[in-house]
Automatic annotation (TrEMBL):
Catalyzed reactions: coproporphyrinogen III + O2 + 2 H(+) = protoporphyrinogen IX + 2 CO2 + 2 H2O
Organism placement in taxonomy: Eukaryota, Viridiplantae, Streptophyta, Embryophyta, Tracheophyta
Record organism: Kalanchoe fedtschenkoi (Lavender scallops)
Pathway linked to the protein: Porphyrin-containing compound metabolism; protoporphyrin-IX biosynthesis; protoporphyrinogen-IX from coproporphyrinogen-III (O2 route): step 1/1
Record's protein name: coproporphyrinogen oxidase
GO biological process: chlorophyll biosynthetic process; protoporphyrinogen IX biosynthetic process
Length: 394
């Protein structure tokens, strides 16, 4: 997150730093569970309310305010970057993430059979920008977001510490470049799983208080599955595609990144995982840069074959209000992780990122019940047990 833009290691759709509706079932009866909507409401500031003091964290915005654009540019790179050569890692990574966005969105629209993505293009005066696409209230998808971002900025100390929890020093502002694609796909049918993926590239320049320091770079990302009900064949298929992508580069990648995923997506206050995992990696720079660029590209290319066959099998499965209520409870867990633990969400909020992009990972609806626990042996219990005790699927 990742889970809320480009940097998110999880579900944020804002780039994350280094280590850092029920139309299918008709109108519900009056006794049906109510879902909590996340539709934003305007906030009116009372005349007597004072704005935040100039020293607050939010005042030290590290990224310029975005400007809406009517058309997609050929590149979001600064002129100095884009005119050097089209073979740089920055330019090739931008091409990869934009191709991935186009491919995934086309597949999502085809599976929905009628829904279309809304697209917002934005830029920033100093360079960078992004394309946010959201399909909402479709036939298959409750909410599907696929974003790309290219960001230049300065990481303030607060954001640096959020990105690097283990840092033992307090650096000054650090210039950075980040690019990534991030997506969260929430289907309506409770038997169809949610998917999150995020692939990103991050560079820092020398801190202002340490001129001449070497530029650092790393890759991060992953793809993970969050079902409300377990179908073994679906989960095994998903993990097999992840393993095949990893094995093309290093046989140690899948077991390493699978465990990393299980360990990262933990809702600590509940002692359970958000879902059934996949792969996750961050701060990856201990391999050849070209190899890691190819690896990230392969992983992004594996999203559609890993996920869409599952959606085609499950999107029309009949379900009841009970199934829908359980899905909504699990969506609540999704919200908890993204807003409390996702590093990408924290980073985006602290650096003044585009709020709609950061929070687009949140589902349209979710649910919380007091002291809810499934009965042992039920399908709901099996899902919860797998989230508490991760297993090897292949």
């Amino acid at each position: 997150m990742p889970t809320a833009t480009l940097f998110s290691a999880s579900s944020s759709l804002y780039p994350s730093p280094p280590s850092s509706s029920s139309s299918l079932i008709g109108s519900p009866a009056s006794s049906a569970p109510r879902a909590l909507s996340f539709a934003p409401k305007p906030i009116t500031r009372p005349p007597s309310a004072k704005r935040a003091p100039p020293h607050c964290t939010r005042s030290a915005l590290a990224i310029e305010k975005e400007t809406p654009e009517d058309n997609r540019p050929d590149t979001f790179l600064r002129e100095a970057d884009s005119h050097v050569t089209t073979s740089t890692v920055r330019s090739r990574f931008e091409k990869m993430i934009r191709d991935t966005q186009d491919t995934v969105c086309a597949s999502i629209e085809a599976a929905d059979g009628g829904g279309k993505f809304r697209e917002d293009v934005w830029s920033r005066p100093g360079g960078g920008g992004g394309i946010s696409r959201v399909l909402q209230d479709g036939a298959v998808w409750e909410k599907a977001g696929v974003n790309v971002s290219v960001v230049y900025g300065v990481m303030p100390p607060d954001a640096y510490r959020a990105a690097n929890p283990g840092a033992d020093h307090k650096p000054g502002p650090v210039p950075f470049f980040a690019a990534g694609v991030s997506s969260v796909l929430h289907p309506k049918n409770p038997f169809a799983p949610t998917l999150h993926f995020n692939y990103r590239y991050f560079e820092t320049d020398a801190p202002k208080d340490a001129p001449g320091a070497p530029r650092q770079w790393w890759f991060g990302g992953g793809t993970d599955l969050t079902p409300a009900y377990i179908f073994d064949e679906d989960v095994k298929h998903f993990h097999s595609v992840q393993k095949n992508a990893c094995d093309k580069f290093d046989p140690s990648f899948y077991p390493r990144f699978k465990k990393w995923c299980d360990d990262y997506f933990v809702i600590k206050h509940r002692n359970e995982r958000r879902g059934l995992g996949g792969i996750f990696f961050d701060d990856l720079n201990d391999y050849d840069q070209e190899m890691l660029l190819s690896f990230a590209t392969e992983c992004a290319s594996s999203v559609v074959p890993a996920y869409l066959p599952i959606i085609e099998r499950r999107k029309d499965t009949p379900f009841t209000e009970k199934h829908k209520a359980w899905q909504q409870l699990r969506r609540g867990r999704y919200v908890e992780f993204n807003l409390v633990y996702d590093r990408g969400t924290t980073f985006g909020l602290k650096t003044g990122g585009r709020i709609e992009s950061i929070l687009v990972s949140l589902p349209l609806t979710a649910r919380w019940e007091y002291d809810q626990a499934p009965e042992e042996g039920t399908e709901e219990w099996k899902l919860l047990d797998a989230c508490i005790n991760p297993k090897e699927w292949i």
